[in-house]
Automatic annotation (TrEMBL):
<feature type="domain" description="Aspartate/glutamate/uridylate kinase">
    <location>
        <begin position="8"/>
        <end position="298"/>
    </location>
</feature>
<dbReference type="GO" id="GO:0008804">
    <property type="term" value="F:carbamate kinase activity"/>
</dbReference>
<comment type="similarity">
    <text>Belongs to the carbamate kinase family.</text>
</comment>
<dbReference type="GO" id="GO:0005829">
    <property type="term" value="C:cytosol"/>
</dbReference>
<dbReference type="InterPro" id="IPR001048">
    <property type="entry name" value="Asp/Glu/Uridylate_kinase"/>
</dbReference>
<dbReference type="InterPro" id="IPR036393">
    <property type="entry name" value="AceGlu_kinase-like_sf"/>
</dbReference>
<dbReference type="GO" id="GO:0019546">
    <property type="term" value="P:L-arginine deiminase pathway"/>
</dbReference>
<keyword id="KW-0418">Kinase</keyword>
<protein>
    <recommendedName>
        <fullName>Carbamate kinase</fullName>
    </recommendedName>
</protein>
<dbReference type="InterPro" id="IPR003964">
    <property type="entry name" value="Carb_kinase"/>
</dbReference>
<dbReference type="Pfam" id="PF00696">
    <property type="entry name" value="AA_kinase"/>
</dbReference>
<keyword id="KW-0808">Transferase</keyword>
């Protein structure tokens, strides 16, 4: 099979799943998580998939922003679009190196590379007035109240603690889409649309300009999967399966769910905004645009999920 005939998967890796856990966020733990994730993606590629890797950056963007603020008396601060670009570079670099090492270890003739990706958003998106995207680490209620008093918008995030939030406009177009497609067709393992893409708008002269926001990477990854007509959209996150009544004694994990069932569960409020809800909306959008199959699972279960042994599988119906 040549590279153009291989099935194409967009694999979206969560920013939270790229830190070890909320207590272990230092760079060495990020490397551990990236290297572990890379082994599973390499196995997928060994099994015959062409993979386009996208990734989140929520925790990492928040850490860089905070570092900026703490050092603001000494060095200039950086706008959010540049911070997103920074994370595309740093996380892209980590994934690229970890994947290349894994390919070499397995004797797989593959190389990975990262495409700095700009994503067009609407200047008038109401999201700019209503920040919803959680970034940075998890705070206690007391810490969150203290930061809120300093002007940060904060939200409670899926029972895991409090987090700062920033604007998260809808992705409209991936400006480097043709480059991503062409590189994947040539057999490259492309890392792209990092952190949902660098948010840009067109000004009155039609020129591109960055805007201060963090696009949801699941929404942007769904847009990519739809645009390139990917055979599979796989979201790798912190849970093996999506659940109903998540984090309660009534929790029930979903193995196989149709799009219409998923819509109903979404309307019943089973999926937390800012964490699972955007993933569910992203897979529904992908499936309703003609996508074939979507999976939500965690990194260690990627290959088992592909073999139908675990994960939440979203199918037509
Ligand atoms: N219904 C649900 N089923 C499973 N997980 C859920 C649900 N609602 C909220 N979550 C939480 O959402 C998390 C995934 O969101 P998040 O950590 O923001 O994603 P990412 O991996 O993209 O960083 C899961 O790890 C889990 O803690
Ligand atoms: N940009 C983004 O959606 O990041 P997370 O996946 O880390 O939330």
């Amino acid at each position: 099979m040549n590279d153009r005939q291989k099935p194409v998967a967009v694999v979206a890796i969560g920013g939270n799943s790229l830190i070890k856990d909320k207590e272990h966020t230092a760079v060495r733990y990020q490397w551990e998580a990236v290297r572990e994730t890379a082994t599973h993606i390499a196995e997928m590629i060994a099994q015959g998939w062409t993979v386009i890797v996208t990734h989140g950056n929520g925790p990492q963007v928040g850490f860089i922003l905070r570092r900026n603020e703490l050092a603001a008396h000494e060095v200039h601060t950086t706008p959010l679009d540049l911070i997103v670009a920074d994370t595309q570079g740093s996380i892209g670099y980590m994934l690229q190196q970890a994947l290349d090492n894994e390919f070499a270890r397995r004797g797989l003739y593959r190389r990975a590379f990262t495409i700095v990706t700009q994503v067009l958003v609407d200047r008038d998106d109401p999201a700019f007035q209503n920040p919803t995207k959680p970034i940075g680490g998890f705070l206690t209620k007391e810490e969150a109240e203290r930061f809120a008093a300093e002007g940060w918008p904060v939200v409670e995030d899926a029972g895991r603690g409090w987090r700062r939030v920033v604007a998260s406009p809808q992705p409209k177009a991936i400006l480097e889409e043709n480059a991503i497609r062409a590189a994947a067709e040539e057999g490259w393992i492309v890392i792209a649309v990092g952190g949902g893409g660098i948010p840009v708008v067109r000004n009155e002269k039609g020129e591109l300009r960055g805007v201060p926001a963090v696009i949801d990477k699941d929404r942007a990854s769904s847009l990519l999967a739809r645009s390139i007509k990917a055979d599979l959209f796989l979201i790798s996150t912190g849970v093996e399966k999506v659940a109903l009544h998540f984090n309660t004694p009534q929790q029930r994990d979903l193995d196989r769910v149709t799009v219409s069932e998923l819509r109903r569960y979404m309307a019943e409020g089973h999926f937390a905004p800012g964490s699972m809800l955007p993933k569910i909306e992203a897979v529904i959008e992908y499936m309703e645009a003609g996508g074939k199959h979507a999976i939500i699972t965690n990194p260690p279960n990627i290959v088992r999920a592909l073999n139908g042994e675990t994960g939440t599988h979203i199918v037509h119906g």
